Amino acid sequence: MHLARFPRYRLGHFPTPLERLDRLSAALGGPEIWIKRDDCTGLASGGNKTRKLEFLLADALEQGADTLVTQGATQSNHVRQTAAAAARAGLACHALLERRVTNQGADYESAGNVLLDEMMDCHFDFRPEGLDMNAEAETLAESLRSEGRKPYVIPGGGSNPVGALGYAACAQELVGQADAMGLRIDHIVHATGSAGTQAGLVAGLHALNAPIPVTGYSVRAPREKQIDNVHGLALRTAELLSVRGDLPRESVVAHDDQVGAGYGQPTEAMVEAMIMLARLEGILLDPVYSGKGFAGLVAMVRAGAFAKTDRVVFLHTGGSVALFAYGHLFQTQKAA
Ligand SMILES: *Cc1c(COP(=O)(O)O)cnc(C)c1O
Hints:
By secondary structure, the chain is an alpha/beta fold. The chain is 41% helix and 16% strand. A six-stranded mixed sheet has the order 1-2-10-7-8-9, sandwiched between helices. A four-stranded parallel sheet has the order 5-4-3-6. The site of pyridoxal-5'-phosphate (PLP) has 19 residues, from helix 3, strand 7 and helix 7.
């Protein structure tokens, strides 16, 4: 794997820290839990989309684009980081926000990520739930083209093989850090949505010949569908990277038991997990993605999935900006 073969526009602060969580590990009674701080990528409050956007933005600029077009849910962290990337490179940004969540109170459509989208001059329009949002984005790009603009369409979550290169890069960075510290990593756990994060990690670890198991906690799709999505994208990413050797479907592990009532719908386990990490380690998760991913890790620990001496890395994918659209969840919470 040789990532310098691909154009890249530097947007983030890398490497992100890899930290041991002593108080959390003690409270759970082992394993030894570590956190990879991709919430600290540095781009307009950070998150996992920054890594993908380094490769996507470079591709857009190579193609002569003057406008980024993308889509996501109303409180999309991806749209916010895309708006920031566009600002940084002097491009316009247009986004379509899908009303996928409509029951989370007055602030949901104006606070958090939406506020930051406005600040960074992202032009956004809402769409009702259930449309083919990538097709809607293509239609928007077509109308921008007819006005003489040069749009570059980034799929939801930045999840195509070019975007997933960002997480192949993360795999390389993480293994490099672990090797330098003499840290054996036994397992990686994170939240999975549009699939690019897990696909890039799986393809990257495969390319590095570093067979660390990765478990993704779906925030939306049922398990088999999520595994198919991740596996399909991992194969295409491995091909782009010219990785040799098979990447079997069994190398992708995902669960859907933390989704709850649906995308962006709070669960008790998520709220408990978020409060636990905030109070033990001073680290903020988000209610839609990383909170559910972390709840999955806590559930695995409690179910005895790890040995006490295992070293487990939670990949923090960011998203805490969305907390401000979900204030009601935490303002009513009694002390744990
Ligand atoms: C987008 C996102 C994810 C999911 O990553 P995918 O690559 O879409 O699977 C996880 N956490 C946060 C905070 C996100 O914004």
